[in-house]
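Chain A, query sequence.
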Amino acid sequence: MSMNEFITPETFNAIDDLEEFITHVDPESYIARVALEYLVINSKSDLLEKLIEKLLTSTSEESRTWAEVYQIDHLLYKQEISLIEATKQLTYKKVKSDELATLIKVFQLYNYYDLKNFEMRASLSSLVAVEIPQLIDGFMKNSLLCREKLIMQGVHLHLNEVEESRKCGLELLENALTPSMKAIAYNLLGISYIICNKDMALENFHKSIDLAKNLQNNRMLDQAQISMNFTYCYWNETDKLKEDLYELTSLNNKQGFAFYLIKTGKKNEALKILDDIDLKIDNDYLKAFDQYYRGLISGERLYFQKSTKYFELAGNLYFRQLPLNELNRIN
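Chain A, predicted structure.
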């Protein structure tokens, strides 16, 4: 059955009571399967869990398979299974529908992105780019296109292909199905300007913050504000930033506070913070910033050289510019 052409974002937006819809929807129907995607991208976790349960017990094998795939991704989101485990489970899923096959590749793309597996990321992204345009028009295709743009905006930024990254971001802003997609796009756009254009960076962060506040999405709000604080520090405008943000306990925020202390001339305090979190740092990206900040404190080349190396290991060639610029300055 292909009801596909009749399901658009408006199909779901027109539903007054989503909870009631999920209670009464036929678990064997195509709209029930696509509703999983709608609930995910609109961050409706409780309803998603309800619908997954409903579809898992359906007599339709197709509906059960869709539910299993979304369940893997949801458990990963809730950090109840590891990236490696989710990736393994998705790899061995046998599916019949083209849409679901492409969705699995998109989920894997996110996972390999987080696992810093660049070879798999490259081959999957070229597959996804070919597959999505061949899908039947409708909500599912639109949503997958947006997901792909979002991930590629990040991928290009990491490769320091800023023009490509911004292009994906602007396309996403035109076609985004949800405000949260826009919030992420604005944040990444802002990051792409941090090093070269303070005003453009801040303008994009402000847009991301406004959307995140409306959505009451604290995770996104913190991300955009941390990016904004970093920008103010980088451009030596520490008087303008949000100091209460530094109460957040995440490691990258503690590093951000160290950056603030360095820029306000409190290098000994900054060093103490870096030493306190030193043993907790478990990835190359945070190690790269740690070495960069230690370089700023000491002025020693070795730290910037190590920072450059860690940014390369983390696959982040965009922020690798930070220690490279310092090395050029010293030379």
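Residues 244 and 257 are 10 Å apart (CA to CA). The chain has a mean pLDDT of 93.
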